[in-house]
Amino acid sequence: TGVEKNFHINRGLFKRNNKVLKAVDGVEFNIEKGETFGLVGESGCGKSTLGKLIVKLLNPSSGNIYFNGRDITKISKKEHLQYTRDIQMIFQDPFSSFNPRQKVIDILMEPLDIHFKSLSIDKKRKVVEELLERVGLTANQANRYPHQFSGGQRQRIGIARALSLNPKLIVCDEPVSALDVSIQSQIINLLKDIQKDLGISYLFIAHNLGVVKHISDRIGVMYLGNIVETASKEDLFENPLHPYTKALISSVPKEHPDEKKERIVLRGEIPSPSEPPVGCKFHTRCPLAQEICRKEVPVLEMKIENHRVACHLI
Ligand code: SF4
Ligand code: MG
């Protein structure tokens, strides 16, 4: 079944002055080789935090992050170097992650300089040219600066940089949210092509379920720092079980005009992540909430084959 990337985040807490600001907790998922796991939820639910934890751009104040059984908050320098090579990230706004005074060639050479010190400059140039072509740009664009490119082209540069170290997994955090719709599908198709050729896995984070549906093999739904449901894309859309997932899916525009669909509108705002409701964190907005929901935390459990849900009533 190939290499399985098994993530498990256990009480990843972010504290300041002993106050918990944010938590990513009880989050577990597998991403198979060559597979895309989509992570969806409203803004502020902890998706980006989760992505940054996985690539080690953030360290929790406390808690554990397991990758294939190893706690990556406690690995040696050498393991850290290998890990940060294997797992790369692309961002919603690649521009802000580039140094505006660096040419594209320097942006793309930087990771090679750090990780492959012994490569000759000619070999590195060759790698950069190949990377640019791989993402649909040309070698003669290497001497330009980021501001000389369009938003879509800049995302291509971000993808090229993420590819430069031959990663096994790329965390894609809202990579198309800032782009025009026509450009969105170009970038998604590029990511799919790259995955087919190189067998890379993606963790694809987005608030837009339509976009996640387009690219994912399996999907996880996140609410206030917890994953509340995971299933294959087909199962999730055909048979959503968690009340929050049902509401999210009901808000996706219909694909056909005669499709039967009733919009479920959730009451209230998403509560503050620093003071989440006790029991099921969704109970303040859940149309089905019962007494038990205000007291006991539901655990993410397998309810149907390969379909897991955290809800007392299911
Ligand atoms: Fe709703 Fe209760 Fe299920 Fe939470 S556990 S989703 S509040 S029914
Ligand atoms: Mg975000």
Automatic annotation (TrEMBL):
Ranges for domain ABC transporter: 1-249
Taxonomic lineage from the root: Bacteria, Bacillati, Bacillota, Bacilli, Bacillales
Gene Ontology MF terms: ATP binding; ATP hydrolysis activity
Protein name: ABC transporter domain-containing protein
Keyword ATP-binding: yes
PANTHER family in the record: ABC TRANSPORTER, ATP-BINDING PROTEIN, TRANSPORT ATP-BINDING PROTEIN
InterPro entries membership: AAA+_ATPase (IPR003593), ABC_transp_ATP-bind (IPR050319), ABC_transporter-like_ATP-bd (IPR003439), ABC_transporter-like_CS (IPR017871), Oligopep_ABC_C (IPR013563), P-loop_NTPase (IPR027417)
Coiled coil: none
Alphabetical GO biological process terms: peptide transport; transmembrane transport
Keyword Phosphoprotein in record: no
Source organism of the structure: Sporosarcina globispora
Keywords from the UniProt entry: ATP-binding, Nucleotide-binding, Transport
Family: Belongs to the ABC transporter superfamily.
Entry-linked Pfam families: ABC_tran (PF00005), oligo_HPY (PF08352)
